[in-house]
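Hey, resending since the last one bounced:
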Amino acid sequence: MKRILVTGAGGAPAANFVDSLRQADEPFHVVGVDVSPYHLELAPVDARYLVPRLHDPAYLHALNAVIAAEQVDFVHPQPDQEVAYLARRSAELGARTYLPEADTVDLCQDKGALATRLRDAGLPVPALAVAESREALVSGAAAIVEQHGRAWVRARRGAGSRAALPVSTAEQVGPWADYWIRERGLREDDFMVTEFLPGREYAFQSLWRDGELVTSGTRERVAYLFGHLYPSGQSSSPSVARTVRRPEVNDVAAAAVRAVDPAASGVFCVDLKEDANGRALVTEINAGRFFTTSNFLARAGLNMPHLYVKLGLGEELPSLPATDAVEEGLYWVRMVDMGFKLVRDGEWTSTAADRLRS
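The structure tokens again:
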């Protein structure tokens, strides 16, 4: 039986990764570690361990102690910070990983640097200004608002639409940045601003081996968890998503991964959003970890976490389509404390009126 260690095990992304492994046609012994003694209690694992925070010098030693005690074969870090750390120090681990190169992870975790790289490679990205100061942020927003009507301000690093705000005037930008600098610990050079993209949003989840696209699936985010509570109107984590087949989205997403690493290996999750003309632009790439809802595609028939573990352990994979490896029109509906459900289009619960008429 394969023995897998998952970091950040008390979080939803790791729990859904584990749920995917539980859907595989082979058993796993899953070990979970987390820095939170509270969230760790939620981890759906076979063994759980509390470890020091990442920047504690004892972190790596504690991780290796768990690996040795549990005879772990493979380590999957799910939180971004641990992905970056272990990508750089994987040689010091007592088990295998299947992470991209550390420089690739660092590039993708800086959304401003990533957008600049993709733009220079000729790929479609939003109009962009990477600010080194508050004044530069405001002037960059003014230029984008003048050209596009609205702008999107956000932090260069972090998930969950961190510090994100759509603006229609440059005057709205300064106070927003001031709040995040004074109250939330960001620096003046932590921000970026792009054109506001009003169209549909896509998530391209993919596995790579030595620059070859192994397989992928694409979904559209239809509605967001607590999106109505965010100034941006979205939280980046969907409450409703559906599988789609959009060749142009697949092509742009795959080209973006190749632009950041021609020899890409591991997991690469690409976010894209349409502009006013319906053209899909790349907004970010998550390198080395899965989207939160990785179990959506697993339940739909494309179990990427299982395939990823097999890749990391050097096993052969079945023949797989490089793109569109899942059925189109499958919906994933999820809410806090209510679990999740996979629904095929056309299989929705009928209304009371429909039932009465029948």
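The first helix runs from residue 12 to 22.

Sorry for the duplicate.
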